[in-house]
Design a protein that fits this description.
heterodimer; A: 111 residues; mainly alpha; two-stranded antiparallel ribbon; 4 helices; 50% helix; flat; B: 539 residues; two-stranded antiparallel sheet; 2 strands; globular
Chain lengths: 111, 539
């Protein structure tokens, strides 16, 4: 039970979980042998910001994350976002366009 | 009365009658109405489970309406069915289970989530009506009935999306949905009319024996594909989805996920059962695959840039619809060839398995997003943060849902995606690579969503965990950040447990739920024979 045959191999989530737990055990053993003077909530745990003091009230929000990814792919994202106009007429236009292509393909008009 | 014998009509009739009885029951009070709705859906769920067990063990079940007996498909002297016939095969039963679970949990979640609104008699009536419509679509064996039930789901879903009339986005989204659903409904009606005009029949099984794949049949097929892909939210006809999902109340959004999946059911039923090998499987299969790949790519791309949590989940949900189209599309493309046994059937199983997984984890994510907006009053990820301090269980549920949708082991999304990757790779490696890359991006999207909403210090707006220092006069109840009410937590917990169990024991799900559904699709003859009977020729 728990072994899924995928056609090319198999997958057992139970074995995976057991392996994960074993890995956690090893990690815990390593951590246990580590630095004992570590204390939470002290200066030890403060983030190091290249020597700059942390700016109060500032935080990383959703808009900041992957900014570089989106900026680098601006050429892809700008037309994509523009296509999502929010106007129902455009939604229908896309449906009509898709319909025309499907008709042409199925009817053999593009062969 | 043998209830199980009448289960095919009862799964439609009970919620339908319940919908009309709800306003009457509501006269006895809100609690009576809520319990009535839950009990109706609980009974329907029990029926759906019993029906599924029966179908998975003994094959398709038929139910004739208006005949001398419910098993009497061919009247004396006729060679074709003339009455409305319900037919429940493995695929129908599979979808019936999804509908039953999502509507039941949606009703339970609603009892707390929506209680502050007025007009709840209509809300619960529409929810039951939507359930009846969806059940009707998957159990009917009649093309015109299919259209009627499609319209019922459209009307009920539109009403539910527009339910919060005070929100402008609800009315706007409902209007867009109404326009697109109506256009889609008319396409289906036109397709049914074309088939009826040619063959004088409406029964799917009987029509399947008659279809010649003439030009008119091709037109009907194109109309079906277009309308049902639009209902399923496939790119590029997906744009109503990110409008409607966030605008609907969270439990309705979960039910809407099942409702869009019924579009997939219709698409599969039409392609495999109605047309079967008479269509050009490779061509139609590739059309479905291209719709799937577009959905995966565009859905996941758009999800990256969303700041509204529910809109983000909606876009990533579109990508997941793409996986379902991809898996089953590959099966369709190789239908009737040796490749079907080699990898096509497995690809279909992956696509079908992903449907039930998607209903569970996407439902869980929407309910978790609903719990967040219920407590914080916002879905804007830029305004959220640190919620895990006060909403630990919601955070855990969100992690489970996010990990499952991203295809992380050991959750259910991984098992179905693994089957899809491996089987699609054998068909075309590039398609598998695109699907895999989209999964990685999905993980990045949900890591960002989780980080933004749950991680970090408590934000001043939501940092009210210390009750002793609270100034109750300055803080309203809706600002009191804590876990959602028990009924909402219960619905999320059930979904989370199912996501984990389906991930830990995918072999059982594939064996008992998915394989009968996939076999029902490829075994067109079994569907036809259940109605027309072995040895009864067709004139």
């Amino acid at each position: 039970m728990g072994v899924l045959k995928t056609g090319s191999g198999f997958w057992s989530a139970l074995v995976w979980v057991a392996t994960l737990l074993g890995s956690f055990l090893i990690i815990w053993l390593f951590a246990r042998a580590g630095e004992t003077s570590y204390k939470r909530g002290t200066a030890q745990t403060d983030p190091f910001l290249s020597g700059n003091p942390p700016a109060p009230g500032e935080r990383v929000t959703a808009s900041h994350i992957y900014w570089g990814f989106v900026e680098a792919l601006k050429g892809y994202y700008q037309p994509l976002v523009r296509a999502h106009t929010g106007v129902v007429n455009d939604y229908l236009a896309w449906a009509v366009l898709t319909g025309a292509i499907v008709f042409a393909l199925l009817g053999g008009f593009l062969r | 009365m043998d209830i199980l014998a009448h289960a095919p009509i009862l799964v439609v009739g009970v919620p339908l009658l319940g919908a009309f009885a709800t306003p009457l029951i509501a006269r006895a009070g809100a609690r009576a109405r809520n319990w009535f709705t839950i009990l109706i859906l609980l009974f329907t769920t029990a029926l759906a489970i019993a029906l599924a067990v029966s179908v998975f063990q003994s094959g398709p079940r038929i139910y004739v309406l208006g005949g001398p007996s419910y098993g009497f498909t061919l009247p004396s002297g006729y060679f074709f069915p003339i009455r409305i016939i319900l037919e429940v095969d493995g695929l129908s039963a599979f979808f019936a289970l999804i509908i039953a679970v999502t509507t039941l949990l949606g009703a339970i979640y609603s009892t707390s989530f929506i209680q502050a609104h007025s007009g709840l008699d209509k809300y619960y009536a529409l929810l039951l009506l939507l359930a009846a419509g969806m059940f009707g679509m998957v159990v009917t064996g009649d093309a015109f009935n299919f259209f009627v039930f499609l319209e019922i789901t459209s009307i009920a879903a539109t009403g539910l999306v527009a339910f919060r009339t005070g929100w402008t986005e609800s009315s706007e989204a409902a209007f867009k949905m109404m326009v697109l659903y109506n256009i889609g409904g008319l396409f289906v009606l036109l397709a049914v009319a074309i088939l009826y005009g040619q063959y004088g029949a409406l029964n799917f099984a009987y029509l399947a024996t008659l279809i010649k794949y003439s030009l008119l049949d091709v037109v009907a097929l194109a109309l079906f594909v277009l309308a049902l892909a639009m209902k399923a939210g496939a790119v590029p006809m997906h744009m109503w989805v990110p409008d409607a999902y966030p605008a609907a109340p969270a439990p309705i959004t979960m039910v809407m996920v099942a409702n869009t999946q019924i579009g997939l059911y219709g698409l599969y039923r039409i392609c495999f059962t109605l047309y079967g090998l008479k269509l050009t499987p490779a061509l139609v299969g590739w059309i479905v695959i291209i719709l799937g790949i577009l959905s995966i790519f565009i859905g996941v791309s758009m999800a990256v840039i969303q700041r509204d949590l529910k809109r983000l989940i909606a876009y990533s949900g579109i990508a997941q619809i793409g996986y379902m189209l991809l898996g089953v599309g590959v099966g369709l493309a190789v239908l009737g060839t040796p490749a079907l046994d080699s990898y096509g059937l497995m690809a279909m199983k992956g696509g079908i398995f992903h449907i039930v997984n998607h209903a569970l984890y996407e439902g869980l994510l929407f309910l978790a997003a609903g719990a967040i907006s219920y407590r914080t009053g916002t879905r804007n990820l830029d305004q959220l943060g640190g919620l895990a301090h006060n909403m630990k269980w919601t955070a855990i549920f969100f992690i489970i849902g996010g990990a499952a949708i991203a295809g992380l082991p050991p959750f259910n999304g991984f098992a179905s995606k693994l089957i899809i990757y491996e089987s699609v790779f054998k068909f075309n490696p590039i398609l598998a690579v695109i699907a895999l890359l989209a999964s990685i991006l999905t993980l990045a999207i949900y890591a960002r969503a989780f980080q933004s909403a749950f991680v970090g210090p408590r934000l001043p707006a939501y940092a009210h965990e210390d009750r002793s220092s609270r100034s109750t006069a300055s803080r309203s109840a809706d600002k009191d950040l804590r876990e959602a009410p028990p009924s909402m937590m219960f619905a999320m917990a059930i979904l989370a447990v199912l996501v984990v169990l389906f991930g830990l024991f995918p072999d059982l799900v594939v064996k008992y739920l998915v394989t009968p559904a996939a076999q029902a699709l490829v075994n067109q003859g079994q569907y036809i024979e259940a109605i027309l009977g072995a040895g009864l020729g067709v004139r």
